[in-house]
Specification:
The protein has 309 residues and is mainly alpha-helical. It contains 14 helices and no strands. It is elongated and about 95 Å long.
């Protein structure tokens, strides 16, 4: 009789390390009786016996393969699905309590599926299609319910929404995610360079990363700041103080009441002074900007004349 530690391949022609050889090997491992399961689980729980855990895991690897085979429709490698399912089986063995009276395979199947689900959601799309528990449930239910290539009808959407306890809008949104496909950000190396297809790298430009734009923005900020300081210097002391305390102090901006108390006038009077100061500041800045623009044009004209000479 074969034991868990003495397993030989039935077909020596199979390449060592192949998926077929692995499947044949795990299917040849004899199953445990309920009494053997109980004894091994007790040794693991009481003594932390890792050999007992191994003997519990090996006979159940065939169930991992069976569950993983049901998820081949997601386009992910069978070996990877089985690997993730095995992680779920190991977690189940660690938490298995034989005194409850349930066989390990019944307890472990939920952990196996949970790990495979996580793997699918991490790898099926570059962008995650489901992040919440409700979305994950909807994702797998829609995948199993979609038997054709077309979109769901309104009646089908309403029926699925009612069965899963979600709104029809969520069903439509998840259906759009399922039908979407990942695209290359830039042109793949093996693609034809003469192709007319547009890739995101061709039309998604980060203008903020452009050195010229950054320099222009920086110069404009300095330019505006200098104009503001010139304009403020031409206001009377009270108007300038009101604007500075109301708009130019970031952490401790004064309220109308604060300024009213300081100048011994009403809040309405402070509001009027503020509005008048803003209008005057606007006019002054227009004048300053116009002069600066004129000076700039004069400089450009002189440069051109110098170049022409």
């Amino acid at each position: 009789m074969k034991t868990c530690t003495d397993i030989q391949l039935f077909n020596s022609n199979l390449p060592v390390g192949s998926l077929e050889a692995y499947l044949q090997r795990i299917n040849s491992i004899p199953m445990l009786s309920q009494e053997e399961e109980y004894a091994l689980a007790a040794r693991l729980q009481e003594n932390g016996d890792l050999q007992a855990a191994q003997k519990l895991i090996l006979p159940h690897l065939r169930y991992v393969a069976k569950v993983a085979r049901g998820y081949l429709g997601y386009g992910l490698p069978m070996a990877d699905l089985m690997q993730e399912g095995t992680v779920g089986l190991m977690k189940a063995v660690k938490r298995f309590k034989p005194e409850v009276g349930v066989r390990l395979v019944s307890f472990a199947v939920h952990w196996i599926k949970a790990e495979i689900h996580e793997y699918i959601l991490r790898n099926w799309r570059i962008v995650k299609v489901a992040t919440t528990k409700a979305q994950r449930k909807l994702f797998f239910n829609l995948r199993s319910a979609k038997k054709r290539l077309g979109w769901f009808t309104k009646e089908e959407v309403n029926s699925i929404a009612q069965d899963l306890g979600v709104c029809p809008k969520e069903v439509r949104r998840m259906e759009e995610r399922l039908n979407a496909r990942d695209a290359h950000f830039d042109l793949p190396n093996e693609s034809d360079n003469d192709s007319h297809a547009l890739y995101p790298a061709e039309y998604l430009e980060d203008a903020e990363a452009n050195p010229a734009s950054q320099l222009e923005t920086s110069n404009w900020a300095e330019h505006s700041e200098s104009h503001l300081q010139v304009a403020l210097s031409q206001l009377d002391n009270r108007s300038r103080d009101i604007l500075e305390k109301r708009w130019l102090i970031e952490n401790h901006k004064a309220t109308l009441q604060d300024l009213a108390d300081f100048y011994q006038v009403s809040k309405e009077r402070i509001r009027q002074l503020e509005q008048q100061a803003l209008l005057k500041l606007k006019e002054i800045m227009k004048t300053v900007s116009g002069k600066a623009s004129g000076n700039s044009r004069e400089i450009e004209k002189e440069d051109l004349e110098e170049i022409a000479a």
